[in-house]
Amino acid sequence: MKTVFTRTATLKDCPTHYCPGCGHGIAHRLIAEAIDELGIRGRTIGIAPVGCAVLAYDYLDVDMIEVAHGRAPAVATGMKRTNPDKIIFSYQGDGDLAAIGTAEIIHAAHRAEQLTVVFINNAVFGMTGGQMAPTTVLGQVTATTQKGREAIGEGYPLQICELLAVLPGAIYIERCSVYNPAQVRKTKKAIKHAFELQVNGAEGLSLVEVLSPCPTYWRMTPAKAMEWIEKEMTKTFPLGCLKSFELTK
Amino acid sequence: MTSNDFYEEVIIAGFGGQGIILAGKALAQTAMKAGKEVTHMPSYGAEVRGGTSNCMVVIADEPIASPLVSQPNSVIVMNKASLNKFAGRIKSGGLLVMNSSLIDNKPELANTIEVLAVPADDIAAELGNPKAANMVALGAYLQKRQIFSPDAAAESLPDVLAKRYHKTLPVNTEALRRGGQFAKK
Amino acid sequence: MCGNEALAEAAIIAGVDAYFGYPITPQNEITAYMSKRMPEEGRVFVQSESELAAINMVFGASATGKRTMTTSSSPGISLMQEGISYLSGAELPAVVVNVMRGGPGLGNIAPSQGDYFQATRGGGHGDYRTITLGPSSVQELADCMSLAFDLADQYRMTVVVLADGFLGQMMEPVVLDKKPRRKLPPKDWALTGAEGREQNIVRSLWLGEGVLEELNYKLQAKYEQVQKNEVICEEYEVDDAEIVVVAYGIAARIVRSAVNKAREEGIKAGWIRPITLWPFPTKQINRAAEELRIFLTVEMSCGQMVEDVKLAVAGKAPVLFYGRAGGSVPSVDEVLERIRQLTIPANKQKVKSKK
Rounded to whole angstroms, what are the CA distances from A153 to A138, A145, A148? Predict the structure, then answer.
């Protein structure tokens, strides 16, 4: 029998703790595939955030560290500056990167740190019970915006990619999603490219934002959640490459 | 520590920009090169120009315990405010060197305290660099105290003066000497 | 050299691979010095966007096995407490220099010893300790840098060098030389890429039942070793003393002068100077308290170390306190006057009967 699909080496052979229909599992797999395809497992160090993905090191078989909430880009800076030959990536959610860690991500980009950042945006705080995230869309009901998020008083959804794209030190910024197989493939390509840039010593920060479903706290079925990303979430967070960087071959 | 050991506590004070800290560093460096124990403690503040500035220098034969000077043997003051603040703290039998170019009043001090009024700004202006007034005062102090010569201080200047100011070494050396000559009179 | 520059150069000699810091008075000479010297040595200097970022950069560099440090002053050290707690949980070595200034809040920029509690009790959340060194001269400040890195690596702990604005700004002659490194365990836990081995994970989250408790006991066992092996303190004329003055850092220099003067006046005074503030020289002080002496603790705070002195004396002798706060420095005469007052026979009896 011919094998047509298999687990990639860097993804550990174990069930995850994620809820059914969660997007983290897909994102983990895409990162693992990118690492294996680029052959960099032995020199990659990953940074797990505070949030649902805090245990990412249980699933990704590379050297990994778990850091304080939002501080991943600073930790990554300390690692990369002292180990320029290593490939450093951070995996951060919207609370981690867009709320408590806003200063760290902006300054890492601003210093043109050679890092790869995978930013999972599911418009809600998952781990703490579905509270409003900076990326919660207007009108969205969460545990702390029970009448739906209002711009005045609760703030507008924070568009991280648009914010970072204006910084010269951010060289590659792309927003993707995983709501259908075609989008998953696009996301894979983007994540791989973000790693490739670092492998090739491109001078600056790469960030891929992934619009990812949280069926549990969106109070939807997994299928409905995917549909909601496509129909609703992309209105606030349009997909596409905001800043590209081509490697000269 | 026996009381016969050499122990000199100095406060140098003025306003920011008068080179107070530099004068203190030059004194400390000179003492260190002469093999003495020494501490130098600058006041440090948010001010860079203007404001008040002072430093404490302790020079001794034996290791120095407290680098904090409350009752100095000697005080060098470069402006009126510093005179008012520090002159009263001088130990009996001590020395006050004051910049008479900027201080016109005669301080009311116990007659055990020797007062040397040096027109430091005027002498420095004659030398073509008003900023060298600090070195004029330091030269006068050194001559009066007879611990180290003004020339010895001039030799330690390259160590404490930032490289970009090394072009001022000749005028500062001359200022130290002129201060010394003034004190001899 | 001023204390700040001396400690920076001493850190370079001790082999610091990376320095991360954010400017704050009165320690700005360190950041400026490092920005010039670290690149000259081919090592890493980053001016971070905050102290929070600086300590996390230290966290990152340390996790990869590098010798790394940051420096700051009181308000900045408060911001770093999160990172120090994580460093302690993850058992990563780090050196943090606190050039203390007056507090609380923004306080002022004058020298202070008001962060003793913060440094010796851990400072951040959770059950942990940081080794705390309290040097009292520019030479000792420089010397304790290599010790700090060795202790950090040996015990996988954060070592806090507790200086103050006075020490940082003061100039004294200093000899900088390379000290032999202790024999240190290999950093086989470091994140270096999992080439040819299983993955290494650096973490401080332990959700499994009882796992975190086990970790805490392991940490405590380590801390006991530090308390057993690493106490350093200095004593002077304690044997015949009727009053023993306890002070650390720059306050100890002032105390030394005051005690010298008291001896000249015929007062039997001595001093004890803790150099490691944690581990605290509890045994040494307790031994000194066997004789019924008066203990006077002098600090540039409203009384923090005095609590450790009381714990060490354990009720055997009276422990009194003299301090100046908010950036003020006690003078030699003030301390001498306290010594005189406490040793007047009538007062001595009063103090001893009240103990």
Answer: 12, 10, 12
Percent of chain C at pLDDT > 70 equals: 99
CB neighbour list of residue C28: distance below 8 Å, 6 or more residues apart? C4
Rounded to the nearest angstrom, the minimum Cα separation between C131 and chain A is 22
Token couple for C15: 């082999």
Q: Structure tokens of A45? A: 């160090």
Domain B7-184 has CATH 3.40.920.10: yes
Could you tell me how many CB contacts below 8 A there are between chain B and chain C? 57
Residue A43 DSSP label? G
Distances (CA, A) of A81 to A198, C23, C58, C131, C156: 13, 20, 11, 27, 21
Residue A71 to chain C, least CA–CA distance (Å): 7
With contact defined as 3+ CB pairs under 8 Å, the chains touching A are C
DSSP B105-137: SPP---TTSEEEEE-HHHHHHHTT-GGGHHHHH
Judged against a pLDDT cut of 60, whether residue B155 lies above it is answered with yes
Query: In the prediction, which pLDDT does C90 show?
Result: 98
* Contact call for residues A103 and C50 (beta carbons, < 8 A): yes
Helix pair B133-145, B20-33: axis angle to 10 deg: 40
Could you state, in order of their start, the residue ranges of all structural domains in chain A?
Answer: 24-233
Contact exists between B and A (3 or more beta carbon pairs < 8 Å): no
Asked if the model's pLDDT at residue B1 lies above 50, the reply is no
**pLDDT 10s digits, B62-115:** 999 999 999 999 999 999 999 999 999 999 999 999 999 999 888 888 889 999
Tell if the CB–CB gap between A81 and C46 is shorter than 8 Å: yes
Distance CA A89, CA A114 (A): 9
CATH tag, A24-233: 3.40.50.970
Please say if the pLDDT value at position B40 is more than 80: yes
The 10 Å CB-count burial string (b at 16+, else e) for A131-168 is: bbbbbbbeebbbebbeeebeeeebeebbbbbebbbebe
In this prediction the pTM is 0.94
- What distance in Å separates the CA atoms of residue C83 and residue C62, rounded to the nearest whole number? 12
pLDDT digits (tens, 9 = 90+) for C44-70: 999 999 999 999 999 999 999 999 999
DSSP C241-282: -SEEEE--HHHHHHHHHHHHHHHHTT--EEEEEESEEES--H
Question: How does pLDDT run across C316-355, given as a tens digit for each residue?
Answer: 999 999 999 988 899 999 999 999 999 988 777 777 776 5
Instruction: Select from C56, C95, C198, C215 the residue whose CB has the most chain A CBs within 10 Å, as the one to mutate to test that interface.
Output: C56
Strand A63-66 to A44-48 pairing: parallel
In order of their start, the domains of chain C are 3-189+205-229 (3.40.50.970), 233-354 (3.40.50.920)
Residue C106, chain B, CB below 8 Å: the answer is no
Quick: pLDDT tens for A144-155: 999 999 999 999
Q: What pLDDT was estimated at residue A249?
A: 62
Tell me the ipTM for this assembly.
0.95
